């Protein structure tokens, strides 16, 4: 059973396919890079649900932070390099130094800052290999919710009604409960909270 950060790192290290994907991403030598979101969360939920086979991922999110080059075409070229290494993986590469423009919010200060502002705490996770070839996990909102199979908005997505609505819509569209029956969804607000 998964109980702490070390358990999460171990279960990922023991997944040959995940490590192959992480090692492929590391070959890009991107600044402040992580593979994040569903790539990590889904593995944890699959393990906690006792699934023998990993659930399919709609994408593998590689993020990095480079203020010197915020050209979206660079991201597409990086995706192309990753597809050349592992063509069967649905790669998505994003430079978080430009994503604040897309999301219409103040600039992020780092990739971890961006991860902390993902909609759900259980998705605000990232993994990478450090310079010493060790697998490391970042969880700016903690790991309790993902380990307890709980979907909650991150503090950032509780700040305004607009963000709370984005969280609610995302939870509805993702329909995670269909795949992971034991998760518990927490709603972001009481309807009249911002009236």
Question: What does this molecule look like?
Answer:
This protein is an alpha/beta fold and 195 residues long. The protein has a single domain (5-142), classed as Beta Polymerase, domain 2. Helix content is 39%, strand content 13%. The chain is built from 8 helices and 7 strands. The strands form 2 sheets. A 5-stranded mixed β-sheet has the order 3-2-1-4-5. A two-stranded parallel ribbon has the order 6-7. α8 links the parallel β6 (150-151) and β7 (184-185). It starts with a helix and ends in a 10-residue tail after the last strand. The mean pLDDT is 95.
What key phrases describe this protein's structure?
single chain, alpha/beta, Beta Polymerase, domain 2, two-stranded parallel ribbon
- Quickly name the level 1 CATH class: Alpha Beta
Helix/strand structural class = alpha/beta
Q: From N to C, what is the helix and strand string?
A: HHEHEHEHHEEHEHE
Rounded radius of gyration (Å)? 17 Å
Q: Approximately what portion of the residues adopt beta-strand conformation? A: 5-15%
CATH-level-2 architecture:
2-Layer Sandwich
Coarse morphology = globular
Helix content: 25-40%
Q: How many E-type strands?
A: 7
* SS field, number of helical segments: 8
Order of strands in the sheet with most strands: 3-2-1-4-5
Q: Main sheet? A: 5 strands, mixed
Low-confidence stretches are none
Give the distance, in angstroms, between the N- and C-terminal Cα atoms.
43 Å
The number of domains is 1
CATH topology: Beta Polymerase, domain 2
**How would you state the average pLDDT, rounded?**
95
């Amino acid at each position: 059973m998964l109980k702490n950060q070390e358990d999460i790192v171990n279960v990922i290290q023991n997944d040959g396919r995940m490590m192959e994907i992480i090692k492929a991403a590391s070959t890009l030598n991107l600044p402040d890079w992580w593979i994040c979101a569903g790539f990590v969360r889904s593995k944890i939920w699959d393990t906690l649900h006792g699934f023998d086979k990993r659930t399919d991922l709609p994408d593998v999110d590689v993020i990095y932070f480079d203020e010197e080059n915020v050209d979206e075409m660079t991201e597409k070229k990086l995706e192309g390099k990753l597809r050349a290494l592992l063509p069967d993986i649905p790669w998505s590469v994003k430079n978080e130094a430009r994503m604040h423009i897309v999301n219409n919010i103040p600039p992020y200060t780092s990739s971890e800052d961006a991860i902390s502002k993902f909609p759900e705490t259980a998705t605000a996770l990232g993994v990478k290999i450090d310079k010493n070839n060790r697998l490391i996990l970042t969880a700016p909102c903690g790991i309790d919710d993902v380990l307890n199979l709980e979907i909650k908005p991150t503090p950032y997505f509780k700040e305004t009604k607009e963000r709370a609505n984005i969280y609610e819509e995302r939870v509805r569209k993702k329909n995670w409960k269909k795949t992971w029956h034991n998760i518990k969804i927490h709603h972001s607000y009481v309807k009249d909270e911002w009236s």
